[in-house]
Design goal:
Layout (H helix, E strand, L loop, with lengths): L1 E4 L5 E4 L3 E2 H8 L1 H6 L2 E4 L2 E3 L4 E2 L3 E6 L4 H22 L4 E2 L9 E6 L7 H17 L4 E4 L2 H11 L2 H8 L7 E5 L2 E2 L15 E11 L8 E10 L2 H16 L2 H7 L3 E2 L10 E2 L1 H20 L3 E2 L5 E3 H7 L1 H5 L7 E3 L2 E5 L4 H10 L2 E2 L5 E10 L15 E11 L1 H22 L5 E5 L14 H17 L5 E3 L9 E7 L5 E10 L2 H4 L4 E2 L5 E2 L2 E6 L4 H11 L13 E5 L5 H13 L4 E3 L6 H10 L4 E5 L1 H6 L1 E6 L3 E7 H13 L5
Parallel strand pairs: 1-7, 17-22, 21-28, 24-25, 31-32, 31-33
Antiparallel strand pairs: 1-2, 3-6, 4-5, 4-7, 8-9, 9-14, 10-11, 11-12, 13-14, 15-16, 18-20, 19-20, 22-23, 23-30, 24-26, 26-27, 27-30, 28-29, 33-34, 34-35
The structure holds one RNA strand of 76 nucleotides.
RNA sequence: GCCACUUUAGCUCAGCUGGUAGAGCAACUGAUUUGUAAUCAGUAGGUCGUUGGUUCGAUUCCGACAAGUGGCUCCA
């Protein structure tokens, strides 16, 4: 007999060789129907795998993250089995579970999958899951596995085997599909009731663009059709708040073939948002002791050789233009220009920290396939600043920048983000990162220290640093789930020396400052793209391009409506009159769809009383007020940048 | 840049297997003068992304290019 410990502290005895499924059945049939896998001493196990010693056990269901990922991992294998039966000779790479669903990478030779193939594959998967095949789990030696896949000529599985040792290799046999290495869990096949293969794409083998491109099929499955339906509805909802769709509906920006890919044109409505954001940034930076500068959009090649950008960054820059034998580049970043401003006049320790700020316009030649609405563009306006400070001042300065992030996030109600400490990869020193191993260690420790001392939750990620130093990135997700860096706070220990930036320290000796690059509001492009989705187009009053729309009940009240509109404009409120010859219901509907925060409905009653009927977007009629009262409450809502 | 797909009126989309195009909304005109999410009628609007080819004939079939979309790689 063996002892099984349960999460609630209970302990029960079972015969040796009992499976998690047997245990579930012994508790209740209902539970057994829900069990997808088991966590055995913290490791995810197939529910049918025999347990031969005392363990602590947690039965995993759809409600557990590990249960879901086990489910999706097995769906990936179910799909592989369907693919193999339809396209014999296919070779598989890996098929992991995702946050939502799964994919499988495969080499289909010359075969190209079509949308129709996906439907056929779904059908096949449904058939297979209904067959309720029994899968036999068998541990085999590395030699056996290698010779098996050598015979098959499957270089992908052989590659996977390289990193595994005897005792780690498991085969699962079912029908014709053989396949997989250790982590597979097949006991959940029978739960695959709602299957949707979502897309076909290419993916480089091992994620390296020098390697062959494999075919990747994405899919998602659910234990019931109801959940699949709900998921599809959710996807539709997400599409409605896609910034590309909202940007068009609300006349925020447009793209034009003649201007070029990734070069957005900001329409008047979008420009209002830009100006409001800049106003906020300038106020905030002014209060935090920043000084504003302005720099040209181009610079000579020599400056980017000095900065060290060219060897690391040339591929992401527009090709240079040559004038009188000198190459000029469009700037992809503002830092070198700012460094030149630092260098323009001699500096003493008394001048530090020096904080230079600019909403700089940069151009980056992003690969065509990477462009994405406003989120990834080739012309960007950066909320940039560079802080030159001593090592002693670093903690305080870096922390002040972090505090500024948090202040902004509060204003915008941004709470779904992850702070990411982005570190270098020692293997890429001299290639992707400046070759200063000691300085990397030192500055990475400095940054981590700030995060820890300020109790900021964060994750650490290798190989995401800037070439000149580690950074803290704020990661967010677009409506359709793509991840982006919204804001960034970076340390630079390299460029100061490259530009020979110096200040005279208290011992009257030259010293090189540390540099902080920071962009709490990221770029206008990405930030506004993000805000469109974050607010679903319903901007708070201070940001709304049209703040108030005056809606006369009929033409008879148009003069009164125009008087009100003028009073609002006099009070610096962005107001318009709907002077169309339409019924009030139509005017309200159209204004609601434009997400204008306030609608002032005026008819005979309001005109006689000198009042307005206030309607708040999304909330309906909220009563009447005098014009003066409305103006003063709207003005304070704007001034305080209230969320609502 | 790579893999796959898409491109028809300002917007959203029809247009079966090749015989030069249609709807709704928006726009414009007129009627209506309206009380909290779509009043009615009429008018105008398209070398069917661009460009080669196949064909008596191409929006429709094939190729190239461009832009976009879903991914990969990459990034604020």
């Amino acid at each position: 007999m063996i002892k099984i410990h349960f999460p609630d502290g209970a302990e029960r005895e079972y015969a040796e060789g009992v499976s998690a499924m047997d245990i579930a059945k012994s508790i209740s049939e209902g539970l057994a129907r829900k069990v997808l896998a088991a966590s055995v001493n913290g490791v995810v196990w197939d529910a049918s795998r025999p347990i031969n010693s005392d363990v602590s056990l947690k039965l995993l269901t759809w409600d557990d993250t590990d249960g879901k990922s086990t489910f999706w991992h097995s769906s990936a294998h179910l799909m592989a089995e369907a693919v193999e039966s339809m396209f014999p000779g296919v070779k598989f790479w890996v098929g992991p579970a995702l946050d939502k669903g799964f994919y499988y990478d495969m080499d289909l030779g010359d075969k190209k999958l079509t949308e129709d193939d996906l439907l056929q594959l779904e059908k096949k998967m449904n058939e297979l899951s209904k067959q309720q095949n029994v899968y036999v789990r068998k541990e085999i030696s590395k030699n056996e596995a290698v010779s098996y896949f050598q015979e098959k000529g499957d270089q992908y599985k052989l590659d996977l085997l390289q990193n595994l040792a005897d005792g780690e290799i498991t085969f699962l046999h079912s029908g014709k599909f053989h396949g997989s290495l250790p982590w597979s869990t097949y006991s959940t096949y029978r739960f695959n009731k709602a299957i949707k293969l979502t897309s076909i794409s290419g993916a480089y083998w091992k994620g390296d663009e020098k390697n062959k491109m494999l075919t990747r099929v994405y899919g998602v499955t659910f234990p019931s059709n109801k959940e699949l339906e709900e998921y599809l509805v959710m996807l539709e909802e997400a599409k409605k708040r896609d910034h590309r769709k909202l940007g068009k509906e609300l006349s925020i920006f447009t793209m034009d073939d003649d201007v070029g890919p990734g070069l957005p044109l900001w329409l008047p409505n979008g420009t209002i948002i830009i100006e409001e954001l800049e106003k906020l940034a300038k106020e905030t930076e002014q209060a935090a002791g920043y000084k504003r500068v302005v720099t040209p959009h181009i610079a000579k090649e020599s400056m980017y050789l000095t900065s060290g950008h060219l060897p690391y960054y040339a591929d992401s820059m527009y090709p240079p233009m040559e004038l009188d034998g000198t190459k000029y580049y469009l700037k992809a970043m503002n830092c070198p220009h700012h460094h030149k401003i630092f260098a323009a006049e001699p500096k003493s320790y008394k001048d530090l920290p020096l904080r230079l700020a600019e909403y700089g316009t940069c151009y980056r030649y992003e690969q065509s396939g990477e462009l994405f609405g406003l989120m990834r563009v080739r012309c960007l306006h950066m909320n940039d600043a560079h802080i030159y400070c001593t090592k002693e001042q670093f903690y305080q300065e870096f922390k002040a920048v972090n505090d500024m992030y948090l202040k902004y996030f509060k204003i915008f109600g941004i709470d779904k983000y992850v702070m990411r400490l982005s570190l270098h990869d020692p293997a890429k020193l001299g290639k992707k990162y400046v070759d200063e191993p000691e300085l990397w260690k030192e500055t990475e420790a400095l940054v981590r220290d700030v995060l820890i001392r300020t109790n900021t939750p964060f994750v650490e990620v290798q190989d995401e640093a800037a070439f000149y130093g580690p950074k803290i990135d704020v990661q967010i997700w677009s409506a359709i789930g793509r991840e982006f860096t919204l804001a960034t706070n970076q340390v630079d220990f390299a460029q100061g020396r490259r530009f020979k930036l110096e200040y005279t320290n208290q011992e009257n000796k030259p010293d090189t400052p540390l540099i902080i690059h920071r962009a709490p509001l990221g770029t206008h492009e990405r930030f506004i793209g993000f805000l469109l989705e974050h607010y679903a187009g319903k901007f708070p009053l201070w940001l709304a391009p049209i703040q108030v729309k005056v809606l006369p009940i009929s033409d008879k009240f148009l003069p009164y409506a125009q008087t009100i509109s003028q009073e609002l404009k006099n009070a610096d409120i962005r107001a318009e009159v709907d002077d169309r010859n339409e019924k009030i219901g139509k005017k309200i509907r159209d204004t609601e769809l434009l997400r204008v925060p306030y609608m002032l409905v005026v008819g005979e009653k309001e005109m006689n009383e000198g009042k307005v009927a206030i309607r708040r977007q999304g909330k309906g009629d909220t009563g009447t007020a005098t014009i003066a009262d409305f103006v003063s409450s709207a003005k304070s809502e704007i001034k305080e940048r209230r969320a609502e």
